[in-house]
Design brief:
The protein is mainly beta. It folds into four domains: 7-62, Beta Barrel (OB fold (Dihydrolipoamide Acetyltransferase, E2P)); 73-132, Beta Barrel (OB fold (Dihydrolipoamide Acetyltransferase, E2P)); 147-203, Beta Barrel (OB fold (Dihydrolipoamide Acetyltransferase, E2P)); 209-274, Winged helix-like DNA-binding domain superfamily/Winged helix DNA-binding domain (Arc Repressor Mutant, subunit A), CATH 1.10.10.10. 13% of the residues lie in helices and 39% in strands. It is built from three helices and 18 strands. The strands form four sheets. It has a five-stranded antiparallel sheet with strand order 3-2-1-4-5, with no helix packed on it. A five-stranded antiparallel sheet has the order 8-7-6-9-10, with no helix packed on it. A five-stranded mixed β-barrel has the order 11-12-13-15-14. The protein is elongated. It starts with 6 loop residues before the first strand and ends in a 10-residue tail after the last strand. The relative contact order is 0.08.
Length: 284
């Protein structure tokens, strides 16, 4: 049986002036229009095609590849607005409808929006901005420090929510975010913790000993570049620390403490020095 809004492998039944008719199962046929037919397609051959509906809501196949399938999250551009909703460019000739009731805010033509693709009660492929209700609520089996793919969802009172590996919902906490995050943005992140209730804490930076070692090396490199002294210590502002090392102040202080315990640096009121440095060179 075919799956609407997804790629299907269907056998070619016959050729016609309109294109190829494919076996849709249960004695039904579906048309692959002539414009998508190439000379190497033959009767009996199995083709991988995407099944959607045409302008008259009839099932039709295409060899074109949309930007997303039903059951996936996608960041798509708004191409037009109407009284029934917004229409999105998803890579096919017929634009994808984002119904008015599935919008969470006003939209404008040209902007991109994070959506989830689904089949509505009328068997039409549609999009919704209410993406978080389609995330998997089962307790995930992620490991602390695991690298994951994130899609930024929205700002909350706690921070910014993100979709993890296209399935689960996680949280990036506000006090650990030092860059602008935009809904629909895709980036790499890390599992910080999976709570007993299944909620996921995320980080944009690796955690643990490996992370501290990497930050510590950045601090040492900067000290060497600046002649053994920089006017940055454990009391420096979080913004300036992020500008130099791309991490939170908490992680910076952990790495700094590690270097101090190894006696690689000294920490003074005016900054930090390599343990072997005697002549300070000011950074500012």
């Amino acid at each position: 049986m075919i799956e609407l809004g997804k790629f299907n492998k269907l056998k070619v039944l016959k050729n016609s002036e309109f294109g190829l008719f494919l076996d849709a199962g249960e004695g039904k046929e579906i048309l692959l229009p002539k414009r998508f037919v190439t000379s190497d397609f033959e009767v009996g051959q199995e083709l991988e095609v995407f099944v959607h509906t045409d302008s008259e809501d009839r099932l039709v196949a295409t060899t074109q590849k949309p930007l997303a399938q039903v059951g996936e999250f996608a960041t798509l551009k708004v191409v037009s607005l109407s009284s029934v909703g917004a229409f999105l460019d998803w890579g096919l000739a017929k634009d994808l409808l984002l119904p008015f009731a599935e919008k969470t805010r006003p939209l404008r033509v040209g902007e991109t929006v994070l959506v989830y693709l689904y089949v509505d009660k009328s068997d039409r492929i549609s999009a919704t901005m209410r993406v978080e209700k389609f995330t998997n609520t089962d307790k995930p089996e992620y490991e602390e420090g695991q690298t994951v793919d994130l899609i930024i969802s929205r700002k909350t009172d706690l921070g910014t929510s993100a979709i993890v590996n296209g399935k689960h919902l996680g949280m990036l906490f506000a006090n650990e975010i030092f860059e602008q995050l935009i809904p629909g943005q895709r980036l790499q992140g890390y599992i910080k913790k999976v709570r007993p209730d299944g909620k996921i804490d995320l980080s944009l930076h690796q955690t643990g000993i490996k992370d501290a070692d990497e930050i510590g090396q950045k601090i040492l490199n900067l000290l060497k570049e600046q002649g053994g002294f920089v006017e940055i210590n454990d009391k420096t502002s979080a913004d300036l620390i992020y500008d130099y090392f791309g991490v939170s102040k908490k992680k910076y202080k952990i790495a700094l403490g590690g270097l101090y315990k190894k006696r690689l640096i000294t920490v003074d009121d005016d900054g930090i020095r390599l343990a072997t440095a005697h002549k300070p060179k000011r950074l500012f």
